[in-house]
Write a structure and sequence with these properties.
- By secondary structure, the protein is mostly beta strands.
- The chain folds into two domains: about 70 residues; about 210 residues, Fumarylacetoacetate hydrolase, domain 2 (Alpha-Beta Complex), CATH 3.90.850.
- About 15% of the residues lie in helices and about 35% in strands.
- Strand 14 and strand 15 form a beta hairpin.
- Keywords: Hydrolase, Metal-binding.
Length: about 290
């Protein structure tokens, strides 16, 4: 099953894909199934019921709506750094024996089609195409053998990184959390549509149509099950939390000359079996305010 979050005339809605056609309903009408976050909170049966309810919903013109991130305000966005050996090597780090975890905040999220924002503070905005695992079942101290039962599905992320700020301190949080730099979408795909643990999927990032990252999720050092189990040693995972699983080599910061995203660029992250997350790049604009006399 594939679900899309959207907004039309200011009203949020949820759509599902049927034979290549999106059908959706908004929250102010009859037959609204609930948001993806609400469905995940109830559990897998709710996703199935919602899919059935949307089977006869009106056809959705994607050009006439505002696409939203699948989850607009995840309680936890836990990102994983240095999770492909080739990326670790190009970054100049020793390969960690434990996942390198850092948080993102929902204020940084942008949707498919929405502009990723290059901040006025720096021009070092870099791309990182990544697989997202979406938690569907709560748990703490989850055994690796049970971990995938806690994953409801998957999506795509572009972990836009302001490298200048990422490297100001040993902790990466600031450089990973500028407003409008974390693209998430375009939709949510349930686990049953993909190989177990989303393994063996091609992942590719393109900047202005040119391939800049190309790998496979088989190359994750810490796979999805390992990440779920490891994170849950310390943190209770809850429905709607997301794990952003890491990026392969090819980042702009590791190139000579460096290849950063700039206004007017278009960046795409495609993962086999999920889809393509596409975003233009725009420059941050700070409104000038006149002084109060």
């Amino acid at each position: 099953m594939r679900f899309l979050s959207y907004r039309r005339a200011g009203i949020p809605g949820t759509a599902a894909l049927f034979d290549g056609i999106w059908r959706g309903r908004e929250a102010d009408g009859t037959g609204y199934a609930g948001s993806i976050a609400q469905l995940l909170a109830v559990g897998p049966p709710a996703l199935k019921r919602a899919h059935e309810m949307l089977a006869d919903a009106p056809i959705l013109d994607l050009d006439a709506i505002e696409v939203l991130p699948p989850l607009t305000a995840p309680a936890k966005i836990i990102c994983v750094g240095l999770n492909y050996a080739d990326h670790t090597a190009e970054s100049g780090y020793a390969q960690p024996s434990y996942p390198t975890l850092f948080p993102r905040f929902a204020s940084s999220l942008v949707a498919h089609g929405e502009a990723i924002v290059r901040p006025v503070a720096s021009d070092s905005l870099d791309f990182e195409g990544e697989l997202v695992a979406v938690i569907g079942k709560s748990g703490r101290h989850i055994a690796k053998a049970d971990a995938l039962a806690h994953v409801a599905g998957y999506s795509i992320f572009n972990d836009g990184s302001v490298r200048e700020f990422q490297h100001k301190t040993p902790q990466w949080t600031v450089g990973k959390n500028f407003d409008g730099t974390g693209a998430f979408g375009p939709w949510f795909v349930t686990s049953d549509e993909l190989p177990s643990g989303a393994a063996g999927l091609k992942i590719e990032t393109r900047l202005n149509g040119q391939i800049v990252q190309a790998s496979n999720t088989d190359h994750l050092i810490f796979d999805v099950a390992t990440l779920v189990s490891t994170v849950s040693e310390a943190i209770t995972l809850e429905p709607g939390d997301i794990l952003v699983t890491g990026t392969p080599s090819g980042i702009g910061h590791a190139r000579t000359p460096k290849l950063y995203m700039k206004p007017g660029d278009v960046v795409e992250v495609e993962i086999e079996g999920i889809g393509t997350l596409r975003n233009p790049i725009a420059q941050e604009v700070i409104e000038q305010r006149s002084a109060i006399a």
